[in-house]
C-alpha cells in the first residue's frame, strides 16, 4: 500500500468512528435519527453565492438540498429531537477552492431540538464534540499516531466571542486569523441579520442581532458548524424574506407548512468532512473523504 493510501485508510477509519460516536452520544441524549432529504422544491437559500443543483422534477424546478434546515423544522412536528447525516450539494464558486475547506458535495450532521434555546444547543454541541474527541482518542489511537496527530479533549464551556468582537479584532475576513488565534474550539455568536439567512432568529430585544452561532476550530481550521434559534412563525418569516429581498413564492411549499404550524426550535449542522479534517490534522478537506469534489474541479468521479 502506498503512503497516501495508508493515510487515507486511517482517515476513513477515524471518520467512521466520528460518525459512530456522534450518533451514540446523540441517541443517549434522546435524539432520533431520520433520513436526509436530497431533492426538494425548497432548500437553504444560504447567504453566500452558490450555483443551484437544479433538477427537472416532472416538469417542476426542484433542487439538490444545500442543507436540510427547512426540513428539520418540519420534522420537529413529528419528533422532539432529531439528527440526520445529510448530504449537502453546494457548488461554490471556484474562488473558494484555495481556502481548502470547501467541497461541492459534503455531509452535515444536522440536529434540531423542539423549543430549545441557543444555550441549550451550545451545551449539546460541546458535549457532542467532547464525546467524539474522546472516542477517537480511545478507539483510533493507532490511526492518529500514523497521521502524526496529537489531540486533546477540550473543556466545556468553550470560549464565546461575538461577531462584533471578531470583526473589531481581525477585520471583516476574520475567519483564518480568528481560528489561528484560538487554543481550543470557540463559539462565534450574535451575527448581524444582514450576513445570515432568514431562518436564524432575530433577538427582538436587540434588533438586527441574531440568536445564532458558529463553532470555530482552533489552529486555523476555520468554521466547524453554523446554527441557532429559528424563526418559526409566518409573520416573522415573511418579514425576514422581505428584508432579504427574497420573493415568498420561492418558498411557497415551506410557507404552507409554516402556516399550519412548525414548532420553535434551535439546532445546528456540523460538517463531517471538516470535523474529520480537524481531528486528523489534514491540510485539505479533500483528504477527508472519498470521491471529493473541490469547487471548480470538473474531473471528479
Ligand atoms: N444553516 C446551517 C448550514 O450552514 C445549518 C443549520 O443552521 O442547522 O447548513
Ligand atoms: Mg456556515
Explained architecture:
By secondary structure, this protein is α+β, with helices and mostly antiparallel strands. It has one domain (3-288): 2-Layer Sandwich (BirA Bifunctional Protein, domain 2), CATH 3.30.930.10. The protein has nine helices and eleven strands. The protein has helices at 3-28, 69-75, 118-139, 141-147, 163-170, 175-181, 234-243, 252-260, 272-280, and strands spanning 32-33, 39-40, 54-57, 60-64, 81-89, 105-114, 159-162, 186-189, 212-217, 222-229, 265-271. It has an eight-stranded mixed beta sheet, sandwiched between helices. It has a three-stranded antiparallel beta sheet with strand order 2-4-3, with no helix packed on it. The longest helix is centred in the N-terminal third of the chain and has 26 residues, at 3-28. The protein is globular and about 55 Å long. The two termini are 22 Å apart. The chain binds aspartic acid and magnesium ion. Magnesium ion binds at residues 223, 226.
Amino acid at each position: 500500500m502506498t503512503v497516501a493510501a495508508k493515510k487515507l485508510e486511517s482517515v476513513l477509519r477515524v471518520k467512521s468512528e466520528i460518525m459512530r460516536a456522534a450518533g451514540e452520544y446523540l441517541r443517549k441524549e434522546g435524539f432520533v435519527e431520520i433520513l436526509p432529504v436530497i431533492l426538494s422544491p425548497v432548500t437553504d437559500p444560504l447567504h453566500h453565492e452558490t450555483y443551484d443543483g437544479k433538477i427537472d422534477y416532472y416538469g417542476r424546478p426542484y433542487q439538490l438540498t444545500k442543507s436540510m434546515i427547512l426540513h428539520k423544522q418540519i420534522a420537529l412536528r413529528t419528533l422532539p429531537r432529531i439528527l440526520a447525516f445529510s448530504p449537502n450539494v453546494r457548488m461554490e464558486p471556484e474562488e473558494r477552492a484555495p481556502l481548502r475547506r470547501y467541497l461541492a458535495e459534503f455531509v452535515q450532521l444536522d440536529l434540531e431540538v423542539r423549543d430549545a434555546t441557543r444555550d441549550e444547543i451550545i451545551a449539546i454541541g460541546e458535549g457532542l464534540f467532547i464525546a467524539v474527541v474522546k472516542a477517537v482518542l480511545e478507539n483510533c489511537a493507532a490511526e492518529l499516531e500514523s497521521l502524526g496527530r496529537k489531540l486533546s479533549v477540550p473543556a466545556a464551556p468553550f470560549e464565546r466571542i461575538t461577531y462584533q468582537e471578531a470583526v473589531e479584532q481581525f477585520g471583516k475576513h476574520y475567519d483564518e486569523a480568528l481560528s489561528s488565534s484560538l487554543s481550543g474550539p470557540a463559539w462565534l455568536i450574535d451575527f448581524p441579520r444582514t450576513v445570515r439567512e432568514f431562518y436564524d432568529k432575530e433577538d427582538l430585544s436587540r434588533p438586527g442581532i441574531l440568536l445564532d452561532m458558529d463553532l470555530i476550530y482552533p489552529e486555523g481550521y476555520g468554521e466547524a458548524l453554523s446554527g441557532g434559534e429559528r424563526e418559526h412563525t409566518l409573520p416573522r418569516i415573511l418579514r425576514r424574506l422581505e428584508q432579504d429581498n427574497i420573493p415568498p413564492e420561492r418558498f411557497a411549499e415551506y410557507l404552507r407548512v409554516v402556516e399550519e404550524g412548525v414548532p420553535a426550535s434551535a439546532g445546528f449542522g456540523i460538517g463531517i468532512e471538516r470535523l474529520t479534517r480537524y481531528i486528523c490534522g489534514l491540510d485539505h478537506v479533500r483528504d477527508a473523504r472519498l470521491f471529493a469534489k473541490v469547487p471548480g474541479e470538473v474531473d471528479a468521479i
